[in-house]
Amino acid sequence: MMDEQFDLDAELKAQILVEALPHIQMYYGQTVVVKYGGNAMINEELKDAVIHDLVLLNLVGIKVVVVHGGGPEINEMLGKIGKESKFVNGLRYTDRETMDIVQMVLCGKVNKDLVTLLEKAGGRGIGLGGMDGGLFQAKRLTDRVGTDYGYVGEIVDVDPSPVIDVLEQGYIPVVSTVAQGVDDETNYNINADTAASKLAVALKAKKLILLTDVRGLMLDPKDETTLLPMLKVSEVPKLVRDGVIKGGMIPKVDCCVEAVRKGVGAANIQDGRVAHSILIELLSKVGVGTMFQ
User: Fold this and answer.
1) Minimal CA–CA distance to 69: which of 190, 217, 169?
2) Cβ-contact 47, 153 below 8 angstroms
3) How many C-beta atoms surround the C-beta of residue 134 within 10 A?
4) CA distance 223 to 242
5) Total-model pTM
């Protein structure tokens, strides 16, 4: 009976691999940019699933790039020095002291911890700060009403050469979202979704994936059955006018729309709380989240 059970399990696993084959062929040699953040970065089981997804993709010949934030770790470090986290319009207000902490945590602890996890899972990762090789260049973020965000930057140029060099050597680039200032002698804190989108464009990526803490874009945010699995970017303005896309979802959708309009094959907003959601999206017929084309 055990042999029969084993045979059934083995046959099922083999069938899963066969079904993944055309998807692997479609993405083989192509670049996929994954913005890693949210609960998937905190929960140990989800973190392990993401890391193994990235290693598997790399080993089957897909050029995978990780762009990460680190909000919880930054909050924790600020708490240790008795500094309160402050947010303005959803962005972290970043004074000089906070900027030092952001750079230390993102480019140091979080970045190197992710590289270590990739190595332990059998992958090969190399950490890059957004200022390395002029990867991200930015100016101070300003808006129409002159809101002060401190040392929060707006990316004005992306030089993907450091990432391309790392990819060509077979490594997984792990990119932290701190940028080199072009308008001041400083570095800037950058929104991770925005950084991932602009890097995907610069790399001519096949796919951009934004991992977040919601299923995707839903007609009714309180009803997961109203998930929109696919959207054309031309449909987005009407959904904004109708109030379907609102609040914190607006900047994420904007990142996806910009990426697709500038040449990225497709962009996804998907639930990082679903184990192996990256593999489900890329290597199966099922897919997860909302895909923008």
Assistant:
1) 190
2) no
3) 15
4) 17
5) 0.92
